Amino acid sequence: MSNRAVISTPTAPEAIGPYSQAIKVGNTVWLSGQIPLIPGSMELVTGDIADQATRVFKNLAAVAEAAGGSMNSAVKINISLTNLEHFGAVNEVMASFLQEPYPARACVQVAALPRGVDIEVEAILAI
Q: Distances from the Cα of 109 to the Cαs of 26, 73, 85, 121, in angstroms?
């Protein structure tokens, strides 16, 4: 596919497996799931779910910017939580990174996430 571009930035965590931070085809960008890793050190954010979610959305924003967009370019966001009791706190963090109209979204509870974290978020952008 000749119009496929790999998006990579040092301002977001490196991939921890065989995947890219994002892939752009045309004006659509698929951002891989981000967990609360600190870029550079690759240390996990400690603290409550709001601290973890903030790091996740900062990571997503960095990749979105590297792709030529922003989180306001998001058309779909998928959130995975290990505990749906965190739903409200994550909503507050997400709203602080986006402007209305908000993108479509799914939020599901999962049994486990990489590195034992409580949250992972992925996004699709149209830029």
A: 32, 25, 9, 12
Q: Is 44 helix (H, G, I), strand (E, B) or coil?
A: strand
Q: Which residues of the chain have pLDDT under 50?
A: none
pTM of the model: 0.96
Cα dihedral sign for 117, 54, 90, 107? negative
| Residue 1 in tokens | 């596919």
Residue with the two structure tokens 């034992």: 116
Instruction: Domains for the chain: give ranges and CATH numbers.
Output: 4-126 (3.30.1330.40)
Beta strand 104-109 with 74-81 is parallel
In this prediction, residue 46 carries a pLDDT of 86
